[in-house]
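Why do we care about 3D structure at all? Because function follows from shape, and shape follows, mostly, from sequence. That is the central idea of this module. The next example makes it concrete: a single protein chain, its amino acid sequence, and then its structure expressed as tokens.
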Amino acid sequence: MGETLKYRRSKQSAKSSIRGISWISSRRGKHRRGILSGGSKWLVLIISISILALLVYIIGVVRSGRSTPENEMLARIPRAMWPINVKSDDSGFENIQHPGDGSITMSVPKFWSPPIHDKKLMTRGLAMKIGSCITPDALGNYDRGDECPLNERTIFLGIASYRDWQCRHTVESAILRAKYPERIRVGVIDQIVDGEDVVCNSPINPCESDPSQALCQRKDQVDVYEMEAHLAVGPMFARHISNRMYRGEYYATQSDAHVTYVKDWDVSIIEQHESTGNEMAVLTTYLSDVLGAIDDETGESLMHTRPIMCNSHFVEEGKEYALEHQQEPEGDPTGIPQLEPFWAAGFSFSRGHFNVNVPYDLYEPMIFQGEEISMGIRGFTVGYDYYAPDRSVCFHHYKEGKNREARAKVTKFTENREFAG
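And the structure:
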């Protein structure tokens, strides 16, 4: 009896154990199913987010390929190259009507690029697409933006010359006195009388006797567009063609044809431009007189003041009045370029996109006084700011003192009276 009871107890215990085990297993199974169900929800959520992110990326790629104003502008900007000149460039030439006589057709270089401002401030992406470097990146791109080292950024110097014997002296000093002459490219509009006037890219002395001249060593860096002097109708038309000579350089300079540059001028003016922290800065001023301003042996500046333009007045021209800017008395440098209200044609230094965005008006013949007003307003209204350089990098040969007689021999475009209207 006892054994039987014991057995029965054991059997019952076993059954109880089995039921206990089944209950525990059932509970654990439910628990496991709960864990799997929660994990599935998280997995579905993660996959959904990934798919959504992929869709957003695809939509972004599709939209970026659509025809937006900025994308259209980017597509029109040519790839930068270096070295380059107008004849080797793919842009070619086109015919235009002479602004003083519509029956005259002239072949001129095509613009390197149309304006890219789209009547509003440029984006940084657009601005950085303008400007060549003398060496390309690993992918062969010369338009490296601000990744291009300062000493490798190219400079275009545009000069409009009317029968000016000093033009070649200006070019010689600009190239020879640059610290990095290999990055300088000069575009000259040489308005001359064949057989009477000196060509601007002709060396001052024969290369056989003085091969060290810049116009001997670096003649390929000087592009000259020769124009018959009797077709000249003032600086605006000539400088319009000069703008057409620009080929994507990082910086653009404009100066008169009777200017002397100082030693290392290229480094100085770039440092000044960079110090503004303004992509749209234009360094411009009426230049100081060259007399006593430059050491003839070293080429270094002897001046410790800087010019600035802060005044204008009306001048009488026959029966009309014209607005004329004035240079203020020179002051001490402040350490950085100073904002000023006006733009000067005799010297201007900017990023290259200024030439692209504010080209000279073609159809303004026989205009002299209105040139700077027109350019200054047009540049300002698309976002450019004007600064007086803190240090002068070149000086002007005025018809003053010992230069009076030599400069008096240079005639003016106003001798072409048939286009005066």
